[in-house]
Amino acid sequence: MNIDSALCITGVISQIFDKALMEPTFCEMYAKFCVQLAFELPEFYKDNEKVGILVLLEKKCIIAR
User: Fold this and answer.
1) DSSP string, 11-40
2) What is the dihedral of CA 51, 54, 57, 58, to 10 degrees?
3) Is residue 1 domain-resident?
4) Is residue 58 in some structural domain?
5) Per residue of the chain (65 residues), what is the pLDDT tens digit?
6) Residue 26 lies in a domain
7) pTM
């Protein structure tokens, strides 16, 4: 998969987060997957704000709370 924009990263995080909620048995696997993606993918900037996997995941968790 070619993740090459902030919009694409946002979509990927949203899908991973939703899958983790639907399949709590695999939450640890999804968390490890996010960490691996954070190391492998570059960070992008959208509206002068850093957009990376971990930043988006943190925002998604805050909103879901």
Assistant:
1) HHHHHHHHHHHH-GGGHHHHHHHHHHHHHH
2) -100
3) no
4) yes
5) 688 888 888 899 999 999 999 999 999 999 999 999 999 988 888 888 888 888 889 989 899 87
6) yes
7) 0.81
Crossing angle of helices 27-40 and 6-22, in 10° steps, is 160
Q: How many domains does the chain have?
A: 1
Contact between 18 and 34 (Cβ < 8 Å): no
| Residue at 56 is within a domain | yes
Q: Which domain holds residue 54?
A: 6-64
Q: Alpha-carbon distance 51 to 36, whole Å? A: 16
Report the pLDDT value the prediction gives residue 64, as an integer from 0 to 100. Answer: 83
